[in-house]
From TrEMBL:
It catalyses: GDP-alpha-D-mannose = GDP-4-dehydro-alpha-D-rhamnose + H2O. InterPro entries: GDP_Man_deHydtase (IPR006368), NAD(P)-bd_dom (IPR016040), NAD(P)-bd_dom_sf (IPR036291). The keyword NADP applies. One of its GO terms (molecular function) is NADP+ binding. Its EC number is 4.2.1.47. This is GDP-mannose 4,6-dehydratase. SUPFAM superfamilies: NAD(P)-binding Rossmann-fold domains. Catalyzes the conversion of GDP-D-mannose to GDP-4-dehydro-6-deoxy-D-mannose. Its cofactor is NADP(+). The gene is gmd. One of its GO terms (biological process) is 'de novo' GDP-L-fucose biosynthetic process. Residues 5-340 form the NAD(P)-binding domain. Keywords: Lyase, NADP. It comes from Fictibacillus enclensis.
């Protein structure tokens, strides 16, 4: 039985990956940070009750208290687990927040990666343990070519992107310096019903559900013209695993090869709730109007614009398809939006039922 260690197991990608690896017959170890409340609650909030019970009650799933910013702690956990594979998914991954917390973002996303690689090296596990580093399309930032592939020059436009560049290059450096199987998966935007509510896609689907059920009046957004390559996180964790099963350590772009605007995402989300949007105005004055009622339900708020905007990101998944046999469009864009909206419609309905119980 292979052993896998996942940092960031309480996040969107970590939870999907844990489920995926358990189905593959792995013994899975996840790292959670110590807090005043028992942090498995983060998983219970993220998953449905059935999913949470299946994961937390699995005898091959184990949780450890730790933090990637603590080098000694990482050495102790890696030594205890002796993993065959490490998936470093821990990150301060909110791009806008990284402008407010640049030093913290660097500690987690940059030095945290170094601490994991050093733990493997110090413990003499360079031949046993394969390391996957979750990299990001934000490395490309101010894009130098379209689409972006493994050889496209980097030009990050946020503290998050800059911190992740350190993580990318230190992973590559340890691969070349110590002959480690250490690789980067350059993931483009990947979303799901488990996405955090402050991320734009989940913010949109949750607002669409609440507006459709009369629980919210408006959705405030930033740049509606931003173009992104959006895929389904559940599909992307499979590609992470494929990268570590490859016969040699290489870096891969993980993307769909399709690009859509924030405005298009909004359109689809509301359409799935039965609301048709009509757009009027331009720039910061643009508004989305409910065609049936004439009410403004979407507006632009400049406070959601980034100090340095990334206008478009489009990945080239050719290498992942040809060398790994991965299917980047297993879940089409419209199906992804539908999955997220349906989950949030149920969430809002459940919240209302609970509220009525206590009224």
């Amino acid at each position: 039985m292979k052993k896998a260690l996942i940092t960031g197991v309480t996040g969107q990608d970590g939870s999907f990956l844990a489920e995926f690896l358990l189905e593959k017959g792995y013994e899975v170890h996840g790292i959670i940070r110590r807090s005043s409340s028992y942090n498995q609650e983060r998983l219970e909030d993220l998953l449905t009750e059935e999913e949470a019970n299946a994961l937390l009650n699995n005898s091959n799933f184990h949780l450890h208290y730790g933090d990637v910013t603590d080098a000694t702690n990482m050495i102790n956990i890696v030594n205890q687990v002796q993993p065959d594979e490490i998936y470093n998914l821990a990150a301060q991954s909110h791009v806008r927040v990284s402008f407010d917390m640049p030093a913290y973002t660097l500690d987690v996303d940059g030095k945290g990666t170094l601490n994991i690689l050093e733990a493997v090296r110090i413990l003499g596990l360079t031949e046993k343990t394969r390391v996957y580093q979750a990299s990001t399309s934000e490395l490309f930032g101010k894009v130098q070519e379209v689409p972006q592939k493994e050889t496209t020059p980097f030009y990050p436009r946020s503290p998050y992107g800059v911190a992740k560049i350190y993580g990318f290059w230190i992973t590559k450096n340890y691969r070349e310096s110590y002959n480690m199987f250490a690789v980067n998966g350059i993931l483009f935007n990947h979303e799901s019903e488990r996405r955090g509510e402050t991320f734009v896609t989940r913010k949109i689907t949750l607002a669409a559900a609440r507006i459709a059920q009369g629980k919210q009046k408006k959705l405030m957004l930033g740049n509606l013209d931003s173009l992104r390559d959006w895929g389904y996180a559940k599909d992307y964790v499979e590609c992470m695993w494929m990268i570590l099963q490859h016969d040699k350590p290489e870096d891969f772009v993980i993307a769909t090869g399709e690009m859509h605007s924030v405005r298009e995402f909004v359109d689809l989300a509301f359409r799935h709730t039965g609301i048709q949007i009509e757009w009027v105005g331009t720039g910061v004055d643009e508004k989305g109007i409910n065609k049936a009622t004439g009410k403004v339900i979407v507006e632009v708020d400049p406070k959601f614009f980034r100090p340095a905007e990334v206008e478009q990101l489009l990945g080239d998944p050719t290498k992942s398809k040809s060398l790994l046999g991965w299917n980047p469009t297993k879940t089409p864009f419209e199906e992804l939006v539908r999955i997220m909206v349906n989950a949030d419609m149920k969430k809002v309905e459940t919240e209302e039922k609970v509220k009525r119980m206590f009224d």
